[in-house]
Structures are given as structure tokens and as C-alpha cells.
Amino acid sequence: MHENSTDQLTFQNPVTRFPDISPPVQDQPEPGLDRELVPRTDRGRRSYRGTGRLEGRRALITGADSGIGAAVAIAFAREGADVALSYLPAEEADAQEIGAVIEETGRRAVLLPGDLSDRDACERLVADAVEALGGLDALVNNAGKQISVEDIADLPDEQWTKTFETNIHAMYRITRAALPHMPSGSTIVNTTSIQAYKPSAHLLDYASTKAAINNFTKGLAQQLAPRGIRVNAVAPGPIWTPLQVSDGQPKEALPEFGKDTPLGRAGQPTELAPAYVFLTSPESSYVLGETLNVNGGTPSP
């Protein structure tokens, strides 16, 4: 797939802005790489046009090597932010590509591999990001683990635990470690999902963590509001990313992925980026505890 060359500010029909893809049945070992995905994703490398909305900001983004996290990293850089990228060591190739895009934009890219299901890795990540960026005033908790299992009898304890460690425990640990470094005016944006509201039967562990993220976001937003730190969330719908082909969806369902949305197609990662930019920018100064749904029109609270 060639990335869209029309920028995100151009008047367009959302039905046809991106192709209605029918991905072939395919498989990648977890966590999956963007560069091996068929078709490739659009992360905004050619199309995202910044307007200085995050000028001078210092951001840490988890899961920033591919998919939604990569699109957010590119958008933040185009908006004027320096970015620390958190990702698994196995995703180094994708992370190097996104780091190069950020540096082409004229902003700093700091690459920080590590497994966030490890408690100590979460604290090291924050310390390394703060040291490299010279501070921290934007945090995007986006890293996630999603493995499809049709029957609860086949869902092992190890997977349940690892999904919670990666999706919600790491979010808590990274946020707790980051807050002492974040001044008033800072922002935290967490990635939840349509799964928090409409859980798929084959994603029990993943959907449960996404519901927990919603609750964590709304509670923390109230706690940090007096300190001038805003906390919000973005809830993606079916977005085409490597997560889907590394056992995130049943393989036979891939050709129909996203076609049940009102727009009739899966979303592309770059379509999520403006939501994260808005919630991080001063434009959203009166928005706290919000979950912004970006899901192709699927009704949700």
C-alpha cells in the first residue's frame, strides 16, 4: 500500500480517503512488523502536515515502532515535539524507520527498546527518556498485547497475566514513574479500544484490559486535574496494524477486517494521530477524563 499523499487537512470523503482493504490471510510471529504487513499501513509519513501545535514538547510514546504509536510519533514530530520511542527489541527494524522519519522532520528521536511487562523496565524507560529529552511533558501510553483465543478453556494463565502486565500494569507503572518529572501543562493520553464497550468473544483478556484503561484514565484525570496535568484516552476501532496478523485476529477473519463499520472499511494508523495531537495540545485545555472514539462510526458511549 502506498501512503496517501493528500494531507490530513484537505477536504476529503472519509469513505474513500483510504482504500477498502481486504487483507490476505497471513501470519507473523508476535509482536509483528509493519514492514512485513500486506498491505502496508499508512502512518502519515507522506501525508501528515504539522502546524506547530506541539512546538518544543518532549514526549514519550510506548509501542511507537509501528501502527498507531508510529503514526502518533510522526505526527508529534511534525507538530514540533521531540520524541522518545518505546518498543520491544524484536521491533528494532520498524523503530529505526520511524526514528529516521522523525529526524528527517528536524526533531529528536530517542530509541528505547525494552519489554514493558517487566516492572523494572518501565522505570528505566522513564528515566532514560527524561535524561535524553531533558525533561518530559507528554506521555502516550499506547503499547498493547492482543492474542485471539476462541475458547476460555484454551486461554492460559500465562497469556492472561502477560496481557494485563503489558496493557494496564505497565501503564500504571510508567505513569507513576513519569509524574514526578511532568510540570503543570503536561498531558497523558492512553490508548483504550472499542473493545472496552463491545468486547469480542475471542479477546477476553485484551478487552478486559481496555475497559480497565478507560476507568484508570477517568480516575487519574480527576486526581491530577488540580496539578494542571490532563489525562485523556483514545479508543480506536478496527485499525490495520501488525497487531492484527500476529494472532490478534482469527486468520480467516482478516479479509473482512473493518468492513462492518459504518464507513465500510478498516482505519489506517494515521487517522488516529490527530486525536492524540488534539488531546496533547493546549487546544484541549478543558478536556479531561475524555475517551475520544475513533472507530469509523460504530456507536459507543
Could you provide a short overview of the structure?
The protein is of the alpha/beta class. It has seven helices and seven strands, in the order βαβαβαβαβαβααβ.
Helix content: 25-40%
The tally of helices reads 7
Shape: globular
What's the number of structural domains? 1
The CATH architecture can be given as 3-Layer(aba) Sandwich
Q: Give the CATH superfamily.
A: NAD(P)-binding Rossmann-like Domain
Largest pleated sheet: 7 strands, parallel
Give the SSE order as H and E letters.
EHEHEHEHEHEHHE
| Spatial separation of the terminal alpha carbons | 33 Å
What is the highest CATH level, the class?
Alpha Beta
How would you portray this structure in words?
There is one protein chain. With 301 residues, the chain is an alpha/beta fold. It has a single domain (34-285), classed as 3-Layer(aba) Sandwich (Rossmann fold). It has helices spanning 67-78, 92-104, 119-133, 157-178, 204-224, 242-248, 273-280, and strands at 58-62, 82-87, 109-113, 138-141, 187-191, 230-236, 291-294. It has a 7-stranded parallel sheet with strand order 3-2-1-4-5-6-7, sandwiched between helices. Helix 1 (67-78) links the parallel strand 1 and strand 2. The longest helix is centred in the middle third of the chain and has 22 residues, at 157-178. The two termini are 33 Å apart. The model has no long low-confidence stretch (mean pLDDT 94).
